[in-house]
Specification:
The structure is a single chain. Helices cover 0% and strands 59% of the residues. The two termini are 19 Å apart. The radius of gyration is 14 Å and the shape is globular. The protein has a five-stranded mixed barrel. It contains no helices and five strands. By secondary structure, it is an all-beta fold.
């Protein structure tokens, strides 16, 4: 059974070798005012394929591959 976390996001940068930067957005409700806010975070993900900026991808948690890279592109 696979207990690894997965997230889906958009490719922001593909300038590194075998690494892409993925922006993962999530929508939360403000605790006091109730307005829906979009929060986002950047993740570095490992990939062997050539991905385009703006492409929708799914990333999965993996062992540490470098100082900042702990995710890999699944789809």
């Amino acid at each position: 059974m696979n207990n690894r976390k997965t997230k889906s996001g958009v490719v922001l940068s593909n300038k590194m070798d075998k690494t892409v930067t993925v922006r993962v957005s999530r929508r939360i409700k403000h605790p006091r005012y109730g307005k829906v806010i979009t929060r986002w975070k950047k993740y570095y993900a490992h990939t062997d394929k050539q991905l385009e900026v703006g492409q929708e991808v799914t990333i999965e948690e993996t062992r540490p591959l470098s100082k900042l890279k702990h995710w890999r592109v699944v789809k």
